[in-house]
UniProtKB/TrEMBL annotation:
Coiled coil: none annotated. One of its GO terms (cellular component) is cytosol. One of its GO terms (biological process) is response to amino acid. PANTHER family: LEUCINE-RESPONSIVE REGULATORY PROTEIN, TRANSCRIPTIONAL REGULATOR AZLB. It comes from Kribbella caucasensis. Pfam families: AsnC_trans_reg. Residues 7-77 form the Transcription regulator AsnC/Lrp ligand binding domain. This is AsnC-like helix-turn-helix protein. GO terms for molecular function: sequence-specific DNA binding.
Length: 95
């Protein structure tokens, strides 16, 4: 699994519409509206690195209202949520 974090600057008047269209793209797992210098952050998760070239430049960048993107590819995932889920496998509630 390859994860990319895509920072999106969008036309301010179209942020909700852009977010919905980006979220509907295959490979995009979630889209967050955020404060600061960005408008949206999209999480892209694909099986192979080459698929990023289809999802991001061919689809995300072409959504009407997307002004620019900046992509960061994740090397590793460090998540308390993931660790807790892994350690709870096989345990019953209340144990």
């Amino acid at each position: 699994m390859v994860t990319a974090i895509v920072f999106i600057k969008a036309d301010v008047a179209r942020i909700p519409e852009v977010a919905e269209k980006v979220a509907a793209i295959d490979g995009v797992s979630e889209v967050y509206s955020v404060t600061g210098g960005l408008d949206l952050i999209a999480m892209v998760r694909v099986a192979h690195h080459d698929e990023l070239a289809t999802v991001i430049p061919d689809h995300v960048n072409r959504v009407p209202g997307v002004l620019s993107t900046e992509t960061h590819i994740a090397f590793r995932t460090y998540s308390t949520h993931d660790l807790e889920a892994a350690f709870s496998l096989g345990q019953e509630d209340g144990v």
